[in-house]
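CORE FACILITY INTAKE
Project code: CF-77B
Contact: R.S. (postdoc)
Sample description: multi-component assembly, two entities in total
Requested service: structural model of the whole complex
Turnaround: standard
Below are the sequence entries exactly as provided by the requester. Do not edit them.
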Amino acid sequence: MKETPLTPAEPMLWSGWGDPAKAAELPAPVRGLLGDLLGVRAPAAPAATFGEVRLPAAALPPPVQAALAAIVGDEHVRADDDARIRHTRGKSTPDLLLMRAGDASDAPDAVVLPGSHDEVAAVLRLCAEHRVAVVPFGGGTSVVGGLVAARRGFAGVVALDLARLDRLVSVDPVSMIAELEPGLRAPQAERLLAEHGLTLGHFPQSYEYATLGGFAAARSSGQASAGYGRFDDMVAGMTVATPRGALEIGRAPRSAAGPDLRQVFLGSEGAFGVITSLRLRVHRAPAVRAYEGWRFESFTAGTAAMRRLAQEGRPPTVLRLSDETETMVGLAKPTDLGAAGRDSGCLLVAGYEGDTCDVAHRRERAAAVLAEEGGVHLGPEPGEKWAQGRFSAPYLRDSLLAAGATVETLETAGFWSDLPRLYDAVRLALLGALGSPLVMCHISHVYATGASLYFTVVTAQTGDPLAQWAAAKRAANEAIVRAGGTISHHHGVGRDHREAYAEEIGDLGVEILRGIKERLDPAGILNPGVLIP
Amino acid sequence: MKETPLTPAEPMLWSGWGDPAKAAELPAPVRGLLGDLLGVRAPAAPAATFGEVRLPAAALPPPVQAALAAIVGDEHVRADDDARIRHTRGKSTPDLLLMRAGDASDAPDAVVLPGSHDEVAAVLRLCAEHRVAVVPFGGGTSVVGGLVAARRGFAGVVALDLARLDRLVSVDPVSMIAELEPGLRAPQAERLLAEHGLTLGHFPQSYEYATLGGFAAARSSGQASAGYGRFDDMVAGMTVATPRGALEIGRAPRSAAGPDLRQVFLGSEGAFGVITSLRLRVHRAPAVRAYEGWRFESFTAGTAAMRRLAQEGRPPTVLRLSDETETMVGLAKPTDLGAAGRDSGCLLVAGYEGDTCDVAHRRERAAAVLAEEGGVHLGPEPGEKWAQGRFSAPYLRDSLLAAGATVETLETAGFWSDLPRLYDAVRLALLGALGSPLVMCHISHVYATGASLYFTVVTAQTGDPLAQWAAAKRAANEAIVRAGGTISHHHGVGRDHREAYAEEIGDLGVEILRGIKERLDPAGILNPGVLIP
């Protein structure tokens, strides 16, 4: 079993996902599917080259730019085309479609790179004074429009790139807490922790590029959440800079002293403040990593097995179940699952990480449950195949977009008894909005009381893929809200989920957010337009 | 092993704790200690009788009282002496001292008993309109001054007693969630759930009288938190009534959609709204309950063992460690622990609840760790003794107060590496403030990154026990804040911790609370003076 890759990421492709060297060729069966199943007939129009991108003139008032430079240093205020284009929006499907079309109209006027908490604080004070909107920027991996500031009413927009806040500040091996800075990309953080024999255990699909600050601000959930917890479980404390001053939050693992203010900033998406330091729960690096596959007759049967594992406690570290369609598409040879023809059942991947003894015990218990619930053990190969490709799906998206397909992922979560209804509602909404798309789903995060549902939808691109995307997105959002799911289990709210989120939490829920924002950011400069309607 | 008592509680003693029939005689060794060790020479002055209590005239404007009666029914608005006295303050040491002195000056003007969410909502709207302060009232067990409204600026004060909201609304056996109403006392809730073979697993010391709504509003933590989680872990969803309308919170076990609003109301102590329904995670009632004792040479050694259990995962369901003094005082015969004289070491109680196989496995693993860390197994007797007396300490407090001692408990939590400093700081502060009190401590809640510290302090009463209490409390609060602990791990903030809490969360933390309150309760009628400075 190969180690999870922990090398630091190269700068991300400006117009798509990830390391340009890793661009994915579409596998032949996928190319076949696009034509045969979805009716994709022609590739998309070629993407704009870097030189063709239309970038608005930078609008930041020169005195503000000079004052920013006085705070962070000349070289850390960048208004060049390269910096501005690389900080334009995130990596959602519409973000990529716009960039492919050469549209950088949402570019910030400048990119500011502070080197310390105090510099962040000074930048926020300055921007509040001059009504300059600030978009906190970590890995730039948002897929929900979390990095586009509403310009109206502002003198300009700066991206506040936290890349220079990249230190492992300290390790407390007694409390098993490490203090880390928010600009660390996940692989950098893992490499620094590995020198102490430690790991965070947080591996979302955005792992190669996303930052710790982004994980916290977006309430991220990693693929191994059943074992290591979600990122919000890992945050023991944090320092937050706001235009009105700093907060230090988290004096104890848990407390009865009032609301848990950590949980106010986790998921705040830069609208309440900028996280400048994180105290995170760490684990000893696992001695063993073992992934394996199981086959279930149906999504229903596999879901029941996952539920038992989650409710009986100590489930596998990784636990994911693909529905019938995702299982079929994911397999080069569907018969690999041991069933004939299209009736290939559903693939469940279980992964175990920990020390030898603990893994052996958990694996034995889980295997007993999975077998009792009708699972057929497939051995390590499907698990290892998943582990090797675990961060590769976003690369495939770029190739699909270029090939003339529109592809999107969206996700929700609900309580176990609501899941079948939620699953049906989202599938039907997507089918209704898109004609005959391919809709696949998996469960990748389980809890005692419920689980997530993660949908991938692929369809032939129409002449206006943005409008096509918007219609499908609206239908899916409405279906999720109506079926009682949460609008996002791991992607966040951003702009794309803002209205659905407002419906989810209701008018008074929105009032709570506004009440907090008004106190911390009275000028409203922090990521305006994101999260709060 | 006896079952945890699940019988519903009788009405609580108006002037002290609990069921009057269970009043505790002071054991002879305790009486000896009071005289020999603490210099208690005479019992306290006799407590006021019910007839002697000084109750201010009820000040609620008659039209408001009539309007309240129109909402909830005549018989559910009570302004009689009995109802008012029984809703005066909570059960903190100063609360008891004041009531012993016949002082009911903090009595509400009336007690209102709504029968539904809609009635709660209507009461809140009415009270907001007429500027009548509302103190949400569950079991009345606050030990931090959580039930005393600041009268200034209000036309009156009503206690909003939720006792009539006492239904098990539904059970979802798939999601393992039960919907329960907030006025259910814990034993009632357990009895109703037991009919479905279920349990909450929440057993704080206030268990016999406290309500589910109080557990949520005060962010309660039960004695079995290592196994079943804290109450805040159990809340899947809730309905909250505010003067401006209702909130429905919690559509999924976890979400990435913004801040976790459940965590805003958990710990809000009635200042943001009134919880009218709770969706709670439930467990299958355990087949096995086994408690046992272990001896450690020192608090330090026992703490190290607990830390290992917490960090390696799946600790015992109950895990508590008494320091040297608490161990000595807690034992009728100190030599029971197997060491001679005063050097009796420290008692650790480990409890296991679950199915037979799971308990056996966890017990075996825990036993190996405890033995490796120097623990000596004492068999079931000390564990069962603890389990039988687990809800009895508050009864003893009444007897101690009557006998002429001042007794108080206070608690904090911190990260593991901070615990020794926190322990010393609080002990020294109490010793400094009180001369030569008896200061005992235990750890009863453990997490991967830290633990709670629970102090019991007993001293000879001075002529002004309230002033004596206040000085010691101030010293302890200051010590906790300075040493970096949280001001409360399970009792909450109330009025007694309000200023220390403000120091803990800082000016901007307080601003967050004020921003939320302003939006939900613009007239500021909800539990004024509690939580928010």
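Facility notes:
- Confidence is low (pLDDT under 50) at residues 1-8, 338-342 of chain B.
- Chain B touches chain A through 88 residues (CB under 8 Å).
Invoice: internal transfer
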